Amino acid sequence: MIGTNELLIILLVVLVLFGGNKLPELARSVGKARVEFKKGIDEEEEKKEEKKEEENDRK
Prior knowledge:
By secondary structure, the chain is an all-alpha fold. The chain has one helix and no strands. The chain has a domain of 40 residues.
């Protein structure tokens, strides 16, 4: 797990690289990417469940 010191260093590096004005935009983009990733995972899980149900119905 990432400790407090490591997290602060990472945040400081991000602040230096992107500047204060770009941070909200960067956070928004990361949030949207996370949501899309979660949707993709959920869709795959639903497909697996449907496939299992179809296989069980055939038996």
